[in-house]
Design a protein that fits this description.
It contains 7 helices and 4 strands; from the N terminus they run ααβαααβαβαβ. It is of the alpha+beta class. The protein has a 4-stranded antiparallel beta sheet.
């Protein structure tokens, strides 16, 4: 987008059976099952651009991205391995590190709220979550499968120091992207009627 695009009218929404079908079948992929091929550099840039078109009260852009290729994630998994032993379930903590190393691409989304701003930090954090969901949709639109996860290394202070999470920042999610050899299986879905209140 250029400065000339600012203020330009955008097309109004129109019914889209394709988008409805995509949303009706949206399913996160098992991160350990994601394999090559992954997105090209141009496709990654496209995914990030689409992901950034998210609700953002105040136009603060309270998030940032770290694009993690195979080498950086292999190095991170090795550095995290000793920390897994300090978790409540060390065996499980070590096992989930395969989520970091299996996919061809990971996009780390960090929530970067502006403290003291009139826009509440909670709303800024919600915007970071919306970015994560948008990235999944964008990856799917380009023909890739995606998995949005956090796991213990998103919260362990020693782990956060390994990938330069700065003061005031939080991990919104690791968005793992790649290709599935087989379609994912459907999982239980909510009873939307039971969770909905209608008011005139």
């Amino acid at each position: 987008m250029t400065d000339a695009d600012l203020g330009a009218p955008l097309p109004l929404p129109v019914p889209s059976a394709e988008m409805q079908d995509r949303l009706a079948r949206r399913r996160s992929a098992p991160a350990q099952s994601l394999t090559a091929p992954g997105p090209s550099r141009a496709e990654i840039e496209r995914i990030l651009m689409l992901g950034a078109r998210t609700p953002d009260h105040g136009k603060l852009f309270p998030w940032r991205f770290v694009v993690m290729g195979p080498q950086s994630r292999a190095d991170l998994a090795r550095a995290l391995a000793p920390l897994a032993g300090h978790q409540l379930d060390p065996g499980k903590a070590a096992k989930v590190l395969s989520k970091l190393t299996a996919p061809p691409l990971t996009l780390l989304v960090l929530s970067v709220p502006i403290a003291g701003h009139k826009v509440p930090e909670w709303e800024q954090q919600l915007s970071a979550g919306a970015v994560c969901m948008n990235l999944e949709h964008a990856a799917n639109a380009l023909g890739y499968a995606a998995s949005w996860i956090t796991d213990w290394y998103s919260y362990d202070p020693a782990a956060l120091a390994l990938y330069d999470v700065r003061a005031g920042e939080r991990v919104a999610g690791f968005i793992h992207i790649g290709t599935l050899a087989e379609p994912p299986l459907e999982r239980p879905r909510p009873d939307v009627a039971a969770l909905t209140t209608w008011r005139d």
